[in-house]
Amino acid sequence: MAKVFDHAEVAQHNTAESCWVILYGNVYDVTRFLPEHPGGSKVILQLAGTDATVEYDPIHPPGILEENLEPSDKLGTINPDTLPKEEKTPKETGEVQDEGPVDLDSILNIDEIEEVATKQIPYKAWAYYYSASDDLQSKAFNGNVYRSILLRPRVFIDCTRCDTSTTFLGHQVKLPIYVSPAAMARLAHPDGEWGIAQACEKYGAMQIISQNASMTPEQIVANAGPNQVFGWQLYVQNERNKSEAMLARMNKLAACIKFICLTLDAPVPGKREHDERSKNVAANLPVRATTTTTVQEPQSQSLSKTSTKPKTMGMGQSLFWGTAADLTWRTTLPWLAEHTHLPIVLKGIQTHEDAYLASLHAPHVKAIILSNHGGRALDTAPPAVHTLLEIRKYCPEVFDRVEVWVDGGIKRGTDVVKAICLGARGVGVGRAALFGLGAGGTEGVARVLESKSSFPFLVVGFFFLGDWGRSVWICVANVWEIHSS
Amino acid sequence: MAKVFDHAEVAQHNTAESCWVILYGNVYDVTRFLPEHPGGSKVILQLAGTDATVEYDPIHPPGILEENLEPSDKLGTINPDTLPKEEKTPKETGEVQDEGPVDLDSILNIDEIEEVATKQIPYKAWAYYYSASDDLQSKAFNGNVYRSILLRPRVFIDCTRCDTSTTFLGHQVKLPIYVSPAAMARLAHPDGEWGIAQACEKYGAMQIISQNASMTPEQIVANAGPNQVFGWQLYVQNERNKSEAMLARMNKLAACIKFICLTLDAPVPGKREHDERSKNVAANLPVRATTTTTVQEPQSQSLSKTSTKPKTMGMGQSLFWGTAADLTWRTTLPWLAEHTHLPIVLKGIQTHEDAYLASLHAPHVKAIILSNHGGRALDTAPPAVHTLLEIRKYCPEVFDRVEVWVDGGIKRGTDVVKAICLGARGVGVGRAALFGLGAGGTEGVARVLESKSSFPFLVVGFFFLGDWGRSVWICVANVWEIHSS
Amino acid sequence: MAKVFDHAEVAQHNTAESCWVILYGNVYDVTRFLPEHPGGSKVILQLAGTDATVEYDPIHPPGILEENLEPSDKLGTINPDTLPKEEKTPKETGEVQDEGPVDLDSILNIDEIEEVATKQIPYKAWAYYYSASDDLQSKAFNGNVYRSILLRPRVFIDCTRCDTSTTFLGHQVKLPIYVSPAAMARLAHPDGEWGIAQACEKYGAMQIISQNASMTPEQIVANAGPNQVFGWQLYVQNERNKSEAMLARMNKLAACIKFICLTLDAPVPGKREHDERSKNVAANLPVRATTTTTVQEPQSQSLSKTSTKPKTMGMGQSLFWGTAADLTWRTTLPWLAEHTHLPIVLKGIQTHEDAYLASLHAPHVKAIILSNHGGRALDTAPPAVHTLLEIRKYCPEVFDRVEVWVDGGIKRGTDVVKAICLGARGVGVGRAALFGLGAGGTEGVARVLESKSSFPFLVVGFFFLGDWGRSVWICVANVWEIHSS
Amino acid sequence: MAKVFDHAEVAQHNTAESCWVILYGNVYDVTRFLPEHPGGSKVILQLAGTDATVEYDPIHPPGILEENLEPSDKLGTINPDTLPKEEKTPKETGEVQDEGPVDLDSILNIDEIEEVATKQIPYKAWAYYYSASDDLQSKAFNGNVYRSILLRPRVFIDCTRCDTSTTFLGHQVKLPIYVSPAAMARLAHPDGEWGIAQACEKYGAMQIISQNASMTPEQIVANAGPNQVFGWQLYVQNERNKSEAMLARMNKLAACIKFICLTLDAPVPGKREHDERSKNVAANLPVRATTTTTVQEPQSQSLSKTSTKPKTMGMGQSLFWGTAADLTWRTTLPWLAEHTHLPIVLKGIQTHEDAYLASLHAPHVKAIILSNHGGRALDTAPPAVHTLLEIRKYCPEVFDRVEVWVDGGIKRGTDVVKAICLGARGVGVGRAALFGLGAGGTEGVARVLESKSSFPFLVVGFFFLGDWGRSVWICVANVWEIHSS
C-alpha cells in the first residue's frame, strides 16, 4: 500500500539533488528525470516540493508521466489536509478567467474570436498560440496575401443550389475546411482537442491531431461520429523507435485516423520570441516565488552547483525537443511505409520543386500541405498562396497526382474561395480553432466552423464562420485571371 | 366606427402570443404577421404593446402596412391622453439631433459632408450607410483606385466654353453624375428620397430610386420637373408576382421613370458588420428595456416558448429578405420583357466577360452599371475602374453597344473626369447623397451636386460639389496613357 | 489742401452704400470700387470705416491703389490723434510674432525652415503658402517621387574640382537653383520679394518675379547686382490691355528682367481648401468684429440689402480674379511676340506632347518649366519628374531645342542632382523661399540657398542649403538606369 | 622635472589667445594647436582651463596627443588637490549610466540590443552611431530590402551536419559574419574596439579596424588569438605622408592584419543631422557652462575677436577632417601598391560598373565590399542587395575574380542567408557590434555574434545572434528565383 506523505516533508525535496513533486494526489521523485525533461529542468525545479498539478495538467497528455518515470519513482500519495490553502488567482494558475459568459453569436469574425480568447486564456497560452518566428513577417504575409487577391464575381448565376461538401483522400466531409494540427489545446480550455473534435463532428469537418496534443489520440477520437475523419501528425523523433511505437498506435485507431501527416517544415524549432518571453512571465508565478525563496536557503547552493544556469525554453522549443532533422526523400518515406499502411500527407511544402518531387511519390503520398507552419518556423518563408501559384505555373500536373491542401492566414470565407479557385482542395485553420476554444470551448470552435447559408460556386460551394458565407458567392474558374491589387 | 383603446390595455399584448402595436394613432394586432416580418420578429416584439410610430416611420414607405396586414388586424385607435409622456432623447428616437444649423457653404468636400452627417444622424442610420462587407476592402479600393490614377493636363486649351450636360439613354441631363439607388433615406432626414429628387431637379441630375426606398415611388416623383429623369431599381423577389406588381406600377409612372435597373451584384446579402452590430445598439433603446422588463413576467415565458432565441438582423439583411438568388441570363431577361417595355439597365457587372455578355442583349439592355455595390456585397470584389480597364482592353466594342455607367468611391471632380476619360458615360453617387441628406436635407444633397463654374473638356465638360470643379479642367483623350502612380 | 478727418466721421461710412477706409494716413471712399475688388467686397466691408493699413499693406504692391481709384476717391487725411488706441495682438494684425531670434545655423533642412516659419508667420500666410489642391495628392507626389529614385554613386572620381555654376537662357548663374514665382511674400516678412532678391544676389541665384508679388517689379529689382538675373511671370488677363501694359513695363526693366514666364497650368484657380478656410479665420480679426457689431446697427440693414450674402474667397482665388482661360497655341504666342521682344518661358507643361509642341516654338520659346504649380492647380496632376521621364522616352529632341526647368517638391541636394541627371537644366524652389523668408527674412532665404562645399559631378556640380551639399556628390550620367525603389 | 600647477592658474588660460587643458594629470598649452584640431577649435575652447580628460579620453586613441603637440606644449602636471570636486552626472560626463546589470540572455534580437544600449550610452554616442544621412532613406532601405526578399525553403534536407565556417581572402573563419570598421567604440563602453576583438576571437569572426578607432591598432590586436583575422580600414588623407606612415605601421602588424580596406564611399562627409544636433546637446555640458561664464569676462572678448563664431561639427564631420576627395582608379591603387604588400579590399562599391572595374584589378584587389556606408554617406544610395542583384545580372564574372562582401541592414540570420545565396561571401555588421558593446561591453558584442545551433545549407550553413539561427535553415541555390513580395 502506498505511503502517505505530509506536504511539509515533500516541500524539503526542492533541489536538483532531490526533487519531488505532487501530481494528481501522488508524490513523485523526479530527480533522475530532471535532465531528460524536454522543457528543461528549470521549469520543474521551480515547482519542486509543491503540488504541480495545475501547471502540469493542461500541457501533458495522460500517460506521458508513466511513460517517462519508473514505477519506483512514484513514492506514494499526499495527505491533502496538509496542503497549503494558497489562493491562486486564475491568471496565476492558468485557469480560464471568468469575465461572465461570452455571447458567441455576437462574435462576427475570426479577429473577434481571437480578441475574446486573448482576454480569457492564460498569458502563456496566448503567447504560444500567437507567436511566430522572428519578426512575424510570414505570419503577416499569410493573411495579407489573401487581401491582395481580388475576386471577379460573375452575375446571372443561379445560386440556389449549393453544396459545400467535398472529399479529402476520398473521405466525404461537409466542409472544405479542416482543423490543422495545433498543439496544447488544453492551455486554452479544458475541452482541449476533444472539444475541437466535437465541433468538427457537428459541422462535418476533418481534424488533424497534433503529435503534441495535450490529450491522447485515443481521448480525442473517443466520441467520434461514424463518418468523422481524422489524421495524425508525425514529428519524426531522433529515437525512431518512439515514432514507430506511435505509428503502431495509430494503426490501431485506423477506423478514425485515415492518414499520417508528416511534418517537414520544422527541422529545427522556430525562433518565436513571444513564446520565449512568456517563460519569464511564467517565472513570476507565485509557485516560483516560493522556490526562489527556497533558493536562498542552503539547499539552493547545491542546486546552483549542479546547474548554475538552468536553461529554460519557450513552449515551442520544449515541444520540439528530440525531433529529427535528418529526414530525406530517400530514407524517410520507405521507413514510413514499413511502419504504417496509412496514406501519407506531406506537410510544409514551400516550393514548386518540392511539390513536384512529392507528387512523384503518389500514391504512397496522397496529399501535400502547402504551409509555412503558420509563420512559426522560418520567417520570410513564402505564404502558401505563392507556392500554389508556382505550381500552377511550373508544374500543374501536381494537382492531378496528389491533393493540394493549404493553411496559413485563412480568416474569411473569401479566403477559402480564393485558395480553392487557385487549385487547393481545402484549407486548414489552426489558430482560429485554438482561439475559438479559448473563447468558448467546444461551442467556440463550432462558432468558427458554423455556416448558415448555402449557395453554389463554379468550383465548389462553401462558406465560413456563420454569416460570413453570405458575402461569398461566385468566383470565376479561370483563376489565372485573378488580379492582384 | 373604430374602437378607442387605452394604452394600458394595449400594453398587455406584448408577447408573441398576442402582439399589438400602436402606429400613427391606430392599434394593430400583428401577432399573425410576426413570423413574416422581413426584419425578424424580435424587432417587433421589442416594441410590442407600445407606440412604435417613431421607430417604424423612417424605414417603411407608406402603404406597406396595408399591403401586409389584413383589414381585420386594425383593431381601432388609441386614446392619445393615455399614452405615457416618456422623454426620449433624439439619439434614442432616431431623430436628427439639433446641434445648431449647419453652414453648408462651409462644407468644402464629400468627406466633410459625411463628417457633419455622422454627427447628426442616428447611429443605426450611420451604421447602415457607412457599412460595407467583411473588412471593407472593396469600399476602400473604390476610393483609392482613383487616387492611383494621375491626370495628364494639357495646356493652351480654350477653357471658356464648357458644357457639363450629357445624355443617359437618350435623355438630356445637366450633369454626368446621378444618384445611385440608395435605400432608407428617411433614416437620415425626413425629406428622404423626395428631398434627393428635389436636389436633382435643381441641378438637372438623374436619380435611380431604390426598391427599398423609405418612400413610395409615387411620392418621390411627386414634384418632378418636366424633364427630370428617374430609373427604378428592381430586386427580383422569390415571389415573382410581387415583382411583377411593382413593374406594373412603374409602367404607370413611365412619364418619369425611364428605365428599370436590375440589381445583379447581390444574390445573397453582404456581410456588413457595422450594420449587424447596430441592431445591438438599437436593442438598448428604452422601448426595448420596457419589453425586457416584461420578459421577466409570466407572459415572457410563453414568448420564449415560441421563439426561444429570436433572430435579429442588420438593416441590410432584413431589406434583403425574399430576394431571388436564381436569376440567369436565359430566364430573367425574357421574364422582364414580358412585364415591362422600359429599357433595362444591368447593375453590378464586375467582369469584362459579363459586360460583353450584357452587350449582346442590346438594345433590350441599354446600359450596364459597373459596381461592386459600394463594397457592400462581396468583399475584395474589384472596383469599377478595374472592370472599365478590362473592357477597354478585352472588348472595347461594349462601349458601342451599351452605355457604361460606374459607381463606387467617387468623391472629387477629378474622379468623375477619370471615369469618363476611361469610357464611362456617367457616374453614380450613393453614400454622398445620403450623407448630404443627413447634413442638411434637400439643401445638403444640393450642396453635393452643386457646381459653380463651367469649362470644357476634350471628352466632356463637368465638375462636382461646388468649387471642386475648379480644380478639374483638362484630361487627355488618349486614356490608355493614364499613368498609375 | 487735403481735408483732415476725425476717425469718428470715417467710422460712420461702414456700409456698402458708403464705404470709407483709412490707408497710410489717407481717407478713401471705396464705395464705387467695392464690386470691382478682386478679393470680393466683403473683405473691404469688414474693414469699412477703420484704418485698414495693417491688413492692406502686406498683400498689395505700391501703386495698385492709385491704379484702381479715381483721384476724387481720395477724400483727405486722417487726424491720427483721433484713431482708437486698440491693442492688436501680432497674430491678429498679421505681424511676425516675436518668439526671440531664430538661430538660422541651427536649421538643418527645408522641413525645419518650414517648421520655424509656420510658428512665426500669420495663419493666413501659412494657409496660403501651405495649401494645395483638393487632397494635396500632387503636392505629396512632388516630394515623394524624389524619394523613390535611388542614386547610383560611382567611386574613384576626383571630387576636388567642383563648379555649381550654370547658365539659364545663356545667362551665367552660380546655382542651378532658382526661386520660382511665388506670390505674397510680404505676408511672411516685410523684406518681401526684395528680400528674396537680396538673398539670390548673395548666392548668384536666379529669381522669377510673380505677377502677384506684394511689391512692384521695380522695387524688387531695385538693388539688383550687375549680373543678377530675373524673369517675370505673366498671368494673361481677360482685359488684355492690362497685360500689355505690364509687358511694356517689363520691357523697360530688361536690364534685369531677362524673360517672360507665361503661366499655363492654372486656367482656373485651384481648389485650395486650407486657403479657403483661412478666410473664416481671418473673419475673427477684431477689426472685423467691430464691423460685425456695426452690422447690427441700422446701416447694416442696407448692407445686407445690397449684398445679402457677400462672397469671400481664399487668397488664391482672389489673386486669380480676371485671369484669362482662353489661351491657345495659335493666338497667345503671336500676341506675346507683338508686345515684348523678351524670350518666352512656358510654365506648367505637364505632358510630353505639350513639351514637344512647345519645342516647335523655339527659339521664340527658349525654355519650358515642367510644373504642376506646386500641386496647387489640378490635384493628381503628375509630378515634374514624370514628365521629364516621358520626354526622355518619347521625344528627347526637346532637350536640344529648349531648356527644361522643373519645380515642385525639391527639398534636398540629392533632389537637384536627380532632376539634372534626368535632363533638367535647373530647378525652382517656391515654398522653401517663402518659408525661408518667414523664418528669417532675407537671411532666412539665404540660409535656404546657402552652400558651403563644392565638388564635381559628371553632369554638373552643386549643392543645396548649407551643409546639405556634402551628402551629394556623384550621380551617373546614364540616367535611364536609375532604379525606382 | 615637470612643473606642478594649481588649477586656479590653469583656469585663467581659457581663451583662444592662451588655451590650456589638463589631460591625464598633465597640463598642456594647446593654443597653437587650436586651428588644427580636426573637431574645430570651439570644442576645445569650451573645455579651456579645465580638466578635459573625461571628455577627451573616449574619442582619442592613445598617442594621438603626442603626435599632434610639440614636446614643449606639455607644460607640467596638475596638483590634483586643487581640482574642483564638481559633481558630474553620468549623463554629463558621458560615462555609462548604471541602471543595474543587463541580463544579456534576455535580449533576443538586434533591435533589443540597440534598445538596451540606447538607454545606457551617452547621448552623443547614440547620436553618432544611430545617425545616417539626410532623411535616413538609405539606412531604412538597407533593412527593408531584406524583408522584401522571401526565402524558398526546401524539405527533406538532412540538416544534422552543419558548418558555418568559411574563408575570407583564404583565411579560415568560423562565421561568415565580420565586424565592419566602426569608429569611436569607446564612446559606448571602455572595452572599446579591443572588446570587439575579444568577442570576435570567442566566435571566430573577422574584424576590420576603423582608421578612426578610439584605440590604436596595436591595442586592439593585443590579445589576438593565433588564427584571428583583422583588416584595417584606410581613409586616404590629403597629407599622403600621414597615410603612408599608417600603412607602414600596418605592415608591421601583418601577423594579425591581413588586408587594407580602402574606403571609397565617402569622398565628402555625410550630412548626419542627428550627429550634428548632438553637438548642441554637448554644448549644455556643465564644463561648457563654465566656459560660457568666462566668456562674459574680458578674456572672452579677445576670444570672440579671434574667432567670432567658432564652428563646431558633429562627430562624423570632425572625424572626416583631412580625408582626400581626389582618389582615382589611375593613381590611388598604384600608390597603395608602393606602400603596402597587403591585399586590397575596396569598400563602398555601389554600382555593377564599379564592381566590374574593381574586378579588373584582381589579384591586387582581392575583395570588394558593397556598402552605402550604413546609409551614412549619400542618402538614397542603393542598398548593397541592389548592387548584388545588378552584378548577378550584368557581370556575374565579378564573383569569380574577387570576393564580394556586403554590409548594411543585417539584423537576422535570414538576412545573412539571403546575402550569401545572392552571391556574397560574407556580411558585415557595424552598428550591431557598437550597440552590443553599449549593451554589455565585450559580452554584449559576444551576444550579437553568439550561435547555439548548427545545421547545413545548400550554400553554406550558419546562423546569427544566439537562438536566431534556429529559424534559418534552408535556402535554395537557384537564387535567381528568389521572389520579391
From TrEMBL, chains A, B, C, D:
GO terms for molecular function: heme binding; L-lactate dehydrogenase (cytochrome) activity; metal ion binding. Its main location: mitochondrion. In the C-terminal section; belongs to the FMN-dependent alpha-hydroxy acid dehydrogenase family. Belongs to the cytochrome b5 family. Residues 289-310 have a biased composition (Polar residues). Residues 83-94 have a biased composition (Basic and acidic residues). InterPro entries: Aldolase_TIM, Cyt_B5-like_heme/steroid-bd, Cyt_B5-like_heme/steroid_sf, Cyt_B5_heme-BS, FMN-dep_DH, FMN_HAD. It comes from Decorospora gaudefroyi. Residues 67-99, 288-311 are annotated as: Disordered. Its EC number is 1.1.2.3. It catalyses: (S)-lactate + 2 Fe(III)-[cytochrome c] = 2 Fe(II)-[cytochrome c] + pyruvate + 2 H(+). GO terms for cellular component: mitochondrial intermembrane space. It is an enzyme of class 1 (oxidoreductase). Residues 102-450 form the FMN hydroxy acid dehydrogenase domain. Residues 2-79 form the Cytochrome b5 heme-binding domain. This is L-lactate dehydrogenase (cytochrome). It comes from the Eukaryota. It holds the Pfam family FMN_dh. Keywords: Flavoprotein, FMN, Heme, Iron, Metal-binding, Mitochondrion, Oxidoreductase. Signal peptide: none annotated. Homotetramer. Its cofactor is FMN; heme b. It is found in: Mitochondrion intermembrane space.
